[in-house]
Amino acid sequence: MPDPAGTAPPHATASPWLKLLAEGAPLAALEECRHRLVAAQEPETHPAVEAEARRALHVHALLEARTRQAAETAVLNDLARRLAALHAPQDVLDEVAAQARRLLGTDLSYIMLAQDDAALRIEVVDGSIGSALRGVELARGVGLGGLVVRTGQPHWCADYLHDDHLTHAATVDAAAAGEQLRGILGVPLRVGEETIGVLLVAQRVPRTWTDHQTTLLTALAAHAALALHNAELFDRHQRTTAELRRRAEADRRAVALHQRLTHIVLGGAGLHAVTDALRDALGAGITVLDAHDTALLTGATERAPEALATALAADAGPPASCFTGPADRATRLRDTPDGHWALAPVVVADEYAGCVVARRHQPFDANTVRSLETGATVIGLVLASERAASEAERRVRGEYLTALLDGTTDDAVLLRRARSGGIDPAAVRAVLVLDGPQAGPAAARAARHHQGWSVEYGGLGVALLPTTPADARDRVAPEPVTAVAAPADGTIATIRAAHRRARSGLRLLHALGRTGAAADSDGLGIYEALFSNAGDGTLDRFVTATIGPLADHDRAHGTRLTETLDAYLTHTSRHTATAGALHIHPNTLYQRLARISAVLGEGWKEPGRAVEVQWALRLHRLSHRLATPGTEADPGTAQGARGED
Q1: Could you tell me if 230 and 84 are in contact, meaning their C-beta atoms sit under 8 angstroms apart?
Q2: Contacts of 79 (CB under 8 A, 6+ apart)
Q3: Contact 121/112 with Cβ under 8 angstroms?
Q4: What is the pLDDT of residues 44-95, one digit of tens each?
Q5: Is 466 helix (H, G, I), strand (E, B) or coil?
Q6: 419 with 396: CB under 8 angstroms?
């Protein structure tokens, strides 16, 4: 039945609202329904219709809020899934900035992260019109971001540049002005109790921010902070894993190098094998220098000697000046336009023995430096082994050569021992004997040059050479020694005879005043022929018969007639020159010549007799020098012998 008052029952006006709400009609449809019901009802029912309309609009607003909240929740959940899939911190920052701007519909978004020095730095910006914001740093407490970090709470401002409640900084304000930032909302990025940064959104017009927008951005910041923390942990894990792999590979290469070097040492291989192993392990050109910076070996990949010179001249100078001084002997690293260099010292018996120089295009790290130092140690072992072997070889050769020259060992035994000493007596064609402070080293150099053998014997240097005496003489001529070479035919007997002949020739050179000269025995001419037969007394009898009375007169009366006659004949019987040479008055010279004529007779002045007298005087002088021990005419003493290559 109709209401007596003529009003419609409640369900008659409510049912349209329920139908519209159930169908999800828009707000405009609800407004249209209200106008239609008001127009169709009596005036007295209008308040009831308006009340129902208000309730329907309220329900519609609640439904829209729930729908929007569900959509935002779905968006946040979807964003959380996407963030969880990102493993690079920079990718997380970029995605968060982009989604914050999209979710709140703002002109711009950016993220500030806390630095180790307590400052804040803008790491990423989305929606910027320039690059003024990126990289801006500010102290904590400065600006809106600093306020958020200091308080740990969200904050916003309607117009940043005109907000006097904030602490401003000129650089930050300049960047904000460049981006035309006005309304800004910032929320903290928190991991546990720690605030690691700030997420901010901004408009280029003044704007008031609602609690709902603050809550929504805070929820996004919570997901972002967790994703960023996880990404940093993952990135740290990846870096740690990569570092462990790198170290494991470096250890593997180091072990392989160590094993290879061990086989080289045990196998007795030389420097070439060591440098090849270092070159393969380090990917570098390898050069080995001795203690005087002279290259012993240059690796096949070292193609720039001028670059090596540049590297050695850099910083503190060449290796010998770096490693032999008071400074430590740690590996030196140098960089030049031609590449990266590492210089590792080689030490033998606590003494600097050289340097290993490595060059490559990549920098040297701790692992490659250790590998180079291992190689330098092995090179030191190789050099020490070679040095010991060389010393033993020199000793064996020295003992053999001493026995050969002594003549105290049977020739057959010497021939058998020659092979073990690496000596071939049959190849010897010259014996070189040298006197002087550098006689031993000079003999060794001559032996190396002619591929012969040398020894220090009787205080003299002796070299047995497979070359002619003339070649031996010419090779040793520039040396600061006195030397004589005598021929041999490869038999032990002729080698000993050549040695005796060369020693005699050496004494003759000194007696003739030719100290420092080099000669072969044939070049000594008549002197060698004369003195080689001096042992039978022929020379003594000739001298005695020719000038004996004059020498006897000098000994008996303490005169110097023999010296005067020698000077007079040397100066071709010129009185003035002879007196000047003897530093006497010409009258004194005449008196002495008269006395000589009285002793020898006037016939000594005749040309033929004068030649005999002059030869007798010269032979007398040489015999005296050769027979006087301790003079320069008596080179060497029997002090034993030492082998030397």
Answers
A1: yes
A2: 95, 99, 103, 220, 223
A3: yes
A4: 777 887 788 788 777 777 766 666 665 566 666 666 666 665 557 777 778 8
A5: coil
A6: no
Q: Work out the pLDDT band at 203, boundaries 50, 70, 90.
A: very high
Percentage above 70 pLDDT, the chain: 79
The burial of 536, by beta-carbon neighbours within 10 Å (0-12 exposed, 13-18 middle, 19 or more buried), is given as exposed
445 with 477: CB under 8 angstroms?
A: no
What confidence tier does 538 reach under pLDDT thresholds 50, 70, 90?
Answer: low
How far, in Å, CA of 505 to CA of 518, rounded? 10
Please check whether residue 619 is in contact with residue 542, taking contact to mean a CB–CB distance below 8 angstroms: yes
pLDDT in tens, 449-475: 888 888 888 889 899 999 998 898 888
119 with 138: CB under 8 angstroms?
yes
Question: H helices of 88-204, where?
Answer: 89-104, 143-151, 170-179
Distance CA 552, CA 539 (A): 17
Write out the two tokens for 384: 């020490």
* pLDDT average, residue stretch 179-203: 88
Residues 6+ apart with CB under 8 A from 487: 429, 430, 468, 469, 494, 498, 520, 521, 522
> Can you name the residues that pair with 199 across neighbouring β-strands?
111, 187
Instruction: Return the structure tokens found at 512.
Output: 């003739």
**Closest alpha carbon to 200 in 93, 326, 74:** 93
Cβ within 8 Å of residue 432, ≥6 positions away: 443, 446, 461, 462, 463, 464, 465, 469, 472, 473, 476, 483, 484, 485, 502
CA 544/CA 555 separation, integer angstroms: 14
- DSSP per position, 3-68: -TT-PPPHHHHHHHHHHHHHHT--HHHHHHHHHHHHHHS-GGGHHHHHHHHHHHHHHHHHHHHHHH
Q: Report how far residue 421's alpha carbon sits from residue 404's, in angstroms, rounded to the nearest whole number.
A: 12
For the four alpha carbons of 369, 370, 373 and 374, in that order, the dihedral sign comes to negative
Asked whether the beta carbons of 618 and 513 are under 8 A apart, the reply is: no
Residue of 615, 610, 632 lying closest to 512 (CA atoms): 632
φ, ψ (nearest 5 deg) of residue 119: -90, 170
Structure tokens at 408: 């105290």
Q: Of 180, 194, 17, 190, which is closest to residue 106 (Cα–Cα)? A: 180
476 vs 463: CA distance, rounded Å: 11
Classify 461 as helix, strand or coil. strand
Q: To the nearest 10°, the Cα dihedral for 501, 504, 510, 513?
A: -70
Q: Which residues are 544's β-sheet partners? A: none
CB neighbours of residue 602 within 10 Å: 10
Instruction: Give me the residue label for tokens 């042992």.
Output: 535
Q: State how beta strands 482-487 and 518-520 pair.
A: parallel
Nearest to 277 by CA among 160, 202, 374: 374
